[in-house]
Design a protein that fits this description.
Elements lengths: L5 H12 L1 H4 L2 H8 L1 H26 L6 E3 L1 E3 L2 E3 L12 E3 L3 H4 L2 E5 L6 E4 L3 E7 L2 E7 L5 H4 L11 E7 L6 H11 L4 H10 L16 E4 L4 E6 L19 E8 L4 E8 L8 H17 L2
Parallel strand pairs: 2-5, 3-7
Antiparallel strand pairs: 1-4, 5-6, 7-8, 8-9, 9-13, 10-11, 11-12, 12-13
Helix pairs in contact: 1-4, 3-4, 7-8
């Protein structure tokens, strides 16, 4: 069905709902004269036009913000080495100033993530899930697969996904016990298996973590400097800078997506954009399952 242009709709509405329709024309002519009536009508139209434009502006979706380059990341894991994928730049609803300092990194498996341009990246994967690591320093793959390595220090980003259906369910259950009380039944079911003791799944948040819930399945967090918390429930070890991020439950199983971000002071203002984009990507992925 064709629709009339907005300027025509505005004109028709002014004619029908304006001074000539709501107030008797003959009375106005006799009282004020033709010139004054025309001015009243024009004023009514102007008021309607201003209100209509405000409503349209509020209802119209925001235009995408800026182009962010794509960077593919190599990975290794249960099935062997995987080459970095090819990809195109993304148009994201973030400020241009931030976009000029960020790139979108992704390995073949799992979610991608925004990080400062020029960083190094590497992904790992297995039956339990996957993780993508990004650092301003070169990443040692020997460290990533070592059972004795203590973890990353300094500026680093990790985005990790754990499957609630495989061996990843233990990691999912530990995070649920900490920050997702509405999904306590999943933890209880894992404990009932008897594979790990109940003490491996302490309930309640880390004492010093700051939590901001966006829903029952999305919680943003901040782990203070030199403190154990959700941020150190990753390959990031505690140091003199805080860790910020978001934990997201996805699907009915559920699966877990955990982002951990620690940036240097001159880049810390990019953290909100990084966190929000992961949230948008997660919501989009759930909507398209």
């Amino acid at each position: 069905m064709k629709t009339a242009p907005s300027n025509q709709i505005q004109g028709w509405t002014c004619y029908v709902a304006g001074a000539f329709d709501r107030i008797s024309g003959s009375f106005l002519f006799s009282l004020l004269g033709l010139g004054s009536v025309i001015l009243l009508a024009l004023a009514a139209c102007a008021q309607f036009s201003s209100s209509a434009q405000s409503i349209v502006a509020a209802a119209s979706p925001q235009k995408p913000g800026a182009h962010v380059p794509f960077v593919g990341c190599r990975a290794d894991g249960q099935g062997g080495p995987v080459d970095a994928p090819n990809g195109k730049s993304r148009v994201l609803p973030i400020a241009a100033e931030a976009a000029h300092r960020l790139a979108y990194y992704r390995a073949e498996q799992g979610f991608g993530v925004l990080a400062p341009r020029g960083w190094y990246c590497f992904g790992v994967y297995g039956s339990n899930g996957y993780a993508l690591y990004l650092s301003s320093q070169q990443i040692s793959t020997d460290n990533l697969f070592s059972t004795t390595w203590s973890g990353f220090a300094g500026p680093v980003i990790e985005i990790a996904g754990e499957s609630g259906e495989t061996s990843g369910r233990f990691g999912v259950a530990r995070t649920i016990a900490r920050v997702f009380p509405a999904h306590k039944a999943f933890v209880e079911k894992v404990i009932e298996e008897g594979t790990e003791p109940a003490s491996s799944f302490p309930f309640g948040p880390y004492p010093k973590d700051k939590l901001t819930y966006r829903s029952k399945e999305i919680v943003e967090y901040q782990t203070p400097a030199n403190t154990d918390g959700l941020g150190t429930n990753s390959r990031l070890k505690k140091d003199a800078s805080p860790i910020r991020g978001v934990a997201i439950l996805m699907g009915e199983t559920p699966d877990l997506l955990l982002l951990s971000v620690r940036l240097s002071p001159n880049l810390a203002d990019l953290t909100p954009a990084i966190v929000k984009q992961v949230e948008r990507d997660a919501v989009h992925a759930v909507d398209n399952r």
